[in-house]
C-alpha cells in the first residue's frame, strides 16, 4: 500500500511544474467597529518583499504563493487589529514613504501608522506521504507616531502543520497559508509591546 501511494504521489509530481496555492476567502475588511476614546491607527496595505513567489516544496513538488497574498494578509491584519486588539483602524491603500506620514496623519486624524512587510512564506515536507507539511510565515511590523518617528519594530512568525498525503492540492496548500496567517495574527494581536505602541 505504501508503495502504491508513493507511485501515485510521484505521478502527481513528475511534471516538475509548481503548484500555486489557492487562498481561501479572507474576512471582510470593508467595515470596522469604531471604539470611543481609543487610538486611531492607519494601516497600510501589507507590502510583499519576498522577492519571489516561490514558497518551498512539498516532497519534490514546488509550491508558489502569488502576489494576492498581500490583499489576503492585509484583510486579516485589519481584522485582527480591530476585532482582537480593539483599536480603530483606517486602511491606507497607497504605498506610504516615511516622510509622508506626518501629512497623512494630520489629514486623516491618525494617532499611529502601521506598516507591515511580508518577509517569507515557505512550505516544507521531506515526504508528503509519511510526514506532515509545515508552512511558515514571517512578517515585519513598523509603528510610527504622528510625527513620522519610528517607535516600534517587531518581527512576527506564523506556522501551521498538517498531514496532507495524497490530498495535497492547490486548495489544501492555500488552507495551510490561511492557518499560518491566523497563527501569526493571533501572536500579533496578543503582543503587549505592539498594543502599547498603538494605544499610547
Shape designation: elongated
Q: Can you tell me the CATH architecture?
A: 3-Layer(aba) Sandwich
Biggest pleated sheet: 9 strands, mixed
- The poorly predicted ranges are 1-15
**Whole-number average pLDDT?**
89
Number of strands: 9
Alpha carbon gap, first and last residue: 60 Å
Describe the model.
There is one protein chain. Helices cover 32% and strands 32% of the residues. With 200 residues, it is α/β, with parallel strands linked by helices. The chain has a single domain (2-199), classed as 3-Layer(aba) Sandwich (Rossmann fold). Strands 1, 2, 3, 4, 5, 6, 7, 8 and 9 form a nine-stranded mixed beta sheet that branches. The radius of gyration is 19 Å and the shape is elongated.
List keywords for this structure.
200 residues; alpha/beta; Rossmann fold; 9-stranded mixed beta sheet; 9 strands; 32% helix; disordered N terminus
Summarize it:
The chain has helices spanning 2-13, 69-84, 101-108, 170-189, 192-199, and strands spanning 19-20, 40-44, 47-48, 54-58, 61-64, 88-92, 112-125, 133-145, 150-162.
Describe the secondary-structure layout.
Layout: H1 2-13, E1 19-20, E2 40-44, E3 47-48, E4 54-58, E5 61-64, H2 69-84, E6 88-92, H3 101-108, E7 112-125, E8 133-145, E9 150-162, H4 170-189, H5 192-199
Parallel strand pairs: 1-5, 2-6, 2-7, 3-7, 4-7
Antiparallel strand pairs: 4-5, 7-8, 8-9
Amino acid at each position: 500500500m505504501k508503495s502504491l501511494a508513493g507511485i501515485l504521489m510521484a505521478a502527481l509530481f513528475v511534471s516538475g511544474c509548481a503548484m500555486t496555492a489557492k487562498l481561501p476567502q479572507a474576512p471582510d475588511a470593508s467595515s470596522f467597529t469604531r471604539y470611543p476614546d481609543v487610538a486611531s491607527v492607519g494601516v497600510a496595505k501589507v507590502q510583499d518583499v519576498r522577492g519571489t513567489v516561490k514558497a518551498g516544496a512539498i516532497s519534490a513538488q514546488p509550491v508558489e504563493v502569488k502576489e494576492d497574498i498581500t490583499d489576503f494578509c492585509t484583510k486579516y491584519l485589519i481584522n485582527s487589529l480591530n476585532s482582537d486588539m480593539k483599536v480603530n483602524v483606517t486602511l491606507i491603500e497607497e504605498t506610504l514613504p516615511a516622510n509622508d506620514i506626518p501629512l497623512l496623519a494630520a489629514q486623516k486624524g491618525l494617532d499611529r501608522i502601521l506598516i507591515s512587510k511580508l518577509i517569507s512564506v515557505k512550505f516544507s515536507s521531506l515526504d508528503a506521504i509519511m510526514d506532515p507539511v509545515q508552512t511558515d510565515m514571517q512578517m515585519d511590523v513598523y509603528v510610527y507616531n504622528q510625527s513620522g518617528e519610528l517607535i516600534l519594530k517587531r518581527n512576527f512568525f506564523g506556522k501551521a502543520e498538517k498531514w496532507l498525503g495524497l490530498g495535497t492540492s492547490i486548495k489544501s496548500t492555500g488552507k495551510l497559508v490561511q492557518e499560518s496567517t491566523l497563527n501569526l495574527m493571533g501572536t500579533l494581536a496578543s503582543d503587549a509591546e505592539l498594543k502599547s505602541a498603538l494605544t499610547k
